[in-house]
Amino acid sequence: MNPGKLDKRVEIWGKTPVENIAGEPEIDELGTQIYDDTMLAEVWAQVSPRTGSLLAGRSADTILSKVTHKIIIRYSAFPALSVANWIMYQGHRFNIDYVLNPDFRNEYLEIFVNEQVGNN
Length: 120
Hints:
120 residues; mainly beta
């Protein structure tokens, strides 16, 4: 992998527990831990489109498609990346389908993501 191809700045997001002023976990009225969306890191990446498809069964005035991408980042930039995280790039949210560590070399992570484009 040529490091010069990591020319896009992407954000890695995830859910983090909300704490009250005493540092204790915030609990909602159902007794469940409250989580907040948080940007965890901003890293250099290569973003490559893979596939796109128009989703069927929608009304005539709705444009909706599923687009997949492959995003490559350095392993050291965020080694704990998982499908629980998501990636933001230029205002678009990319949900992670799976993460590969090629040959277990801990050099780069290949992240396969999907984005739904259009109205729901």
